């Protein structure tokens, strides 16, 4: 399984990347609007429009999802995404014109590069201009530029992470894709082998297995709010807002299978869902595929991350 979230018809993805400041943002565009939902599991989230994404709210569709670095400062980038969509005439119609709906989530990357380098409205606009429906760059790009993992035992033991994407084809017709920026406090395991592939690492390269050490009594050294894994799932299966919320909840299983521990007080783990098509499909199957796509995207995010900011990456 590989693929990309852009395997979903109508989805475009773009990045804006600051390779010096080690930050950036990633936009998932669905200009015609997709039924949106969100599920927030971590204890330290930084988000926008997640209330609107709940079932029962007036607005059902979003026109983009923004994943960004810069901690709460990075939410500024959503303004640039709104400006781009407004110029295209895309948004929720009102008597005074369209209002683009752009849910967003942030991760904390301020400590890795330049803490004054943060995604802003110009970067959000740039990411939209760069968006395509083709291949998606992975690793040290966009929201994954300053991402790292394995910080539960302290930043000195961390590894570089990044951004990854994957998709799953459904039986008959339909596709589910995911894009994830991985900035977890915990370690990343391959659920097929149970082995750690990225995480807290000793100077000789051996993995320290943070979960095992914490359970043995070693206190965590991670700082609250300085982590977070964020992602977006998209599908061309027609979903109601309630069904999209089920898929968002199920998608977190992919995060829990690959990151140990997940949903900690130090992370703001958040998954958005966009339903952008009219294909028939079973919501349970879509949720299962979403979890698998998230799982694979997380593994790709760490395997394709290159060393940066003094942290070693698996891509060299």
Automatic annotation (TrEMBL):
For this protein, the record's PANTHER family field holds: BLR5678 PROTEIN (PTHR36512:SF3), D-AMINOPEPTIDASE (PTHR36512)
Pfam families, A to Z: Peptidase_S58
What the entry lists under InterPro entries is as follows:
ArgJ-like_dom_sf, Peptidase_S58_DmpA
Q: Which GO terms describe its molecular function?
A: aminopeptidase activity
At the top level, the lineage of the source is Bacteria
Entry similarity comment: Belongs to the peptidase S58 family.
What is the name listed in the Swiss-Prot or TrEMBL entry for this protein?
Peptidase S58
Signal sequence, start to end: none
């Amino acid at each position: 399984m590989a693929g990309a979230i852009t395997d979903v018809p109508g989805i475009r993805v773009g990045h804006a990347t600051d390779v010096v400041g080690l930050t950036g943002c990633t936009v998932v565009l669905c200009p015609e609007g997709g039924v949106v939902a969100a599920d927030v599991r971590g204890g330290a989230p930084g988000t926008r429009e997640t209330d609107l994404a709940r079932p029962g709210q007036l607005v059902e569709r979003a026109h983009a999802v923004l994943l960004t670095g810069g901690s709460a400062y990075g939410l500024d980038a959503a303004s640039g995404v709104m400006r781009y969509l407004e110029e295209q005439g895309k948004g929720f119609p009102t008597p005074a014109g369209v209002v683009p709906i752009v849910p967003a989530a942030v991760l904390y990357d301020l400590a890795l590069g330049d803490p004054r380098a943060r995604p802003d409205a110009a970067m959000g606009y740039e990411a939209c201009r760069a968006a395509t429906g083709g291949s998606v760059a992975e690793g040290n790009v966009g929201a994954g530029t300053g991402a790292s993992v394995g910080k539960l035992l302290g930043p000195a033991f961390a590894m570089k992470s990044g951004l990854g994407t994957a998709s799953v084809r459904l039986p008959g017709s339909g596709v589910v894709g995911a894009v994830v920026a991985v900035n977890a406090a915990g370690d990343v395991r391959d659920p097929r082998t149970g082995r750690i592939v990225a995480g807290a690492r000793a100077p000789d390269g051996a993995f320290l297995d943070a979960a095992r050490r914490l359970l043995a009594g070693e206190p965590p050294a991670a700082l609250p709010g300085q982590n977070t894994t964020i992602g977006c799932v998209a599908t061309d299966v027609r979903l109601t807002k309630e069904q999209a919320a089920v898929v968002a909840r199920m998608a977190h299983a992919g995060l829990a299978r690959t990151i140990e521990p997940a949903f900690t007080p130090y992370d703001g783990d958040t998954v958005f869902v966009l339903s952008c098509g009219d294909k028939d499909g079973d919501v349970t199957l879509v949720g299962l595929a979403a979890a698998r796509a998230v799982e694979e995207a997380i593994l790709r995010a760490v395997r394709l991350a290159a060393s940066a900011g003094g942290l070693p990456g698996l891509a060299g």
